[in-house]
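Anyone up for a design puzzle?
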């Protein structure tokens, strides 16, 4: 099978995880990287034996790129994706897809017009405990998902926000815990519970006076299939990280997973310290599996670099989708749902009112509900 010529735009910390995935994927021929500064791109390229560019269109044309990994800061994703799509290049985009719905829609329109495929990174969908949850729901083992909740508690210190000039600012990061740390959990929530109907939410900056963005968000969610749920997110709790998603069915049975544990993960600076594991499972007749699964998943975790492994699985899925003419597990439309959800949370906090779905972009001066006047 002919390999797809792949490249990266945005040679920052997280791009190294993608580079490993592109090097190891049997469907990829990793050929180039593009950065805003030639020096940074060359330093990155030298580690992987690829060519460096500071012009995206030039890189795509000269290297005949077929698939692009977009790893720039999320407010700039749409710039690279629209350019690449117009040149017929498929794009796999780092989470979140964008910081605004307007940018999401521009990317989706460009992809549709040029018949290219978009994917969005959400590698926690590939966690075995999460896959078990999805299969149990699909198989009707808990009945209709009726009650769900996600919780993500962690801590980001001043050194973290000082590590890159774009962090902690509305203009260059687009938001705080909702936009940067929580997209994985928000994606899993809507993937397992179904499409959202309405959100009521509150956001706060609890104890980070040196940043502009929120560090805490709480929301009540109503789903179109009748379920309800709760979201609790915070970068203002220490030490370590604590992340869970639990789904309770109309039958009374529950499934859940701890997706985050140990210390806060920073791409390129730290590793994932604790394995994702199922932490609740009351499906009739399967209760005893929980102990076995925790043992198996923990043992497997000790054989891999989790940060690299699961992104690698998603890169493989995306490239296989291109080869097989199908959609990847996490499409551009799915990526937009996450942006729609955190946008609804910002708008609800701004207006002190529930926000009904679907959402259309707002182009006013308050960054779609982020800036409180």
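Challenge accepted. My sequence:
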């Amino acid at each position: 099978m002919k390999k797809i010529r792949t490249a990266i735009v945005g040679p920052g910390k997280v791009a190294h995880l993608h580079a490993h995935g592109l090097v190891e994927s049997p469907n990829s021929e990793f050929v180039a990287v593009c950065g805003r500064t030639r020096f940074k791109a060359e330093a990155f390229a030298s580690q992987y034996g690829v060519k460096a560019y500071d012009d995206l269109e030039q890189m795509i044309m000269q290297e005949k790129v077929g698939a692009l990994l977009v790893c720039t800061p999320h407010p700039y994703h749409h710039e690279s994706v629209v350019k690449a799509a117009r040149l017929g290049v498929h794009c796999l985009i780092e989470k979140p897809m964008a910081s605004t719905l307007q940018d999401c829609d521009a990317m989706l329109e460009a992809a549709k017009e040029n018949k290219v495929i978009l994917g969005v990174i959400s590698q926690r969908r590939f966690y075995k405990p999460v896959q078990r949850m999805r299969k149990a729901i699909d198989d009707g083992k808990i009945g209709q998902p009726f009650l769900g909740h996600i919780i993500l508690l962690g801590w980001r210190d001043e050194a973290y926000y000082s590590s890159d000039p774009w962090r902690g600012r509305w203009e260059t990061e687009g938001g705080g815990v909702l936009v940067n740390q929580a997209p994985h959990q928000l994606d899993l929530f809507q993937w397992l519970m179904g499409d959202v109907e309405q959100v009521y939410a509150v956001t706060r900056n609890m104890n980070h006076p040196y940043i502009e963005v929120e560090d805490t968000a709480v929301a009540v969610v109503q789903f179109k299939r009748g379920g309800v749920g709760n979201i609790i997110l915070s970068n203002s709790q220490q030490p370590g990280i604590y992340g869970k998603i639990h789904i309770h069915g109309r039958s009374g049975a529950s499934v859940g997973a701890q997706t985050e544990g140990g210390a806060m993960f920073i791409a390129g600076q730290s590793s994932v310290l604790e394995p994702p594991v199922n932490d609740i499972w009351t499906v009739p007749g399967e209760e005893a599996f929980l102990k076995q699964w925790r043992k198996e998943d923990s043992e497997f975790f000790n054989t891999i670099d989790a940060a690299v492994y699961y992104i690698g699985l998603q890169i493989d899925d995306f490239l296989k989708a291109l080869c097989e003419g199908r959609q990847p597990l996490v499409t551009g439309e799915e990526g937009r749902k996450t942006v729609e959800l955190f946008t609804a949370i910002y708008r609800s906090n701004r207006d002190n009112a529930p926000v009904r779905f679907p959402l259309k972009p707002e182009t006013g001066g308050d960054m779609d509900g982020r800036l409180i006047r």
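A detail worth pointing out: The chain has 13 helices and 14 strands.
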